């Protein structure tokens, strides 16, 4: 899995994504969901961001990713979620919440 270390206002955080889950459908997946743990510099969990990423966002970033194997798809999903989470951290929100990307 892709982890990311971020620095916001002198504070260091690690974003730790969990397993990706796909929407159930007979057609192509339209939505992916997963949790991202927000850890402080000592590895303590500060909050969990439950992330939902839609097919259109993924296609906009990488047109082939929505139908690609998970090793290609997951980094795109994580990057989209990390961008939203970093923005929330800059706003001071480290706690649990739902994030749509």
β content, as a range?
Answer: 35-45%
The main sheet comes to:
6 strands, mixed
**SS element count, helices:** 2
- Number of discrete domains: 1
Uncertain parts: none
Question: What is the CA-based Rg, rounded?
Answer: 14 Å
- Give the helix/strand class: alpha+beta
Number of strands: 6
Beginning-to-end CA distance, first to last residue: 18 Å
Shape: elongated
Helix content: 25-40%
The H-and-E topology, N to C, reads as EEEEEHHE
What number is the mean pLDDT?
A: 94
Short structural description:
The chain is an alpha+beta fold. It has helices at residues 55-61, 70-90; strands at 4-8, 11-17, 21-22, 31-39, 45-54, 97-100.
Describe this structure in words.
This protein is an alpha+beta fold and 101 residues long. The chain has one domain. It is built from two helices and six strands. Strands 1, 2, 3, 4, 5 and 6 form a six-stranded mixed beta sheet that branches. Strand 4 and strand 5 form a beta hairpin. The mean pLDDT is 94.
């Amino acid at each position: 899995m892709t982890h990311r270390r971020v620095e916001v206002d002198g504070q260091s955080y690690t974003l730790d994504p969990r397993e990706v889950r796909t929407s159930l459908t007979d057609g192509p997946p339209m939505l992916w969901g997963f949790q991202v743990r927000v850890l402080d510099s000592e590895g303590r969990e500060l909050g969990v961001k439950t992330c939902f990423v839609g097919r259109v966002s993924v296609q906009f970033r990488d047109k082939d990713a929505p139908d690609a194997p998970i090793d290609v798809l997951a980094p795109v999903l994580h990057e989209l979620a990390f961008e939203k989470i970093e923005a929330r951290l800059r706003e001071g929100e480290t706690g649990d919440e739902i994030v749509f990307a």
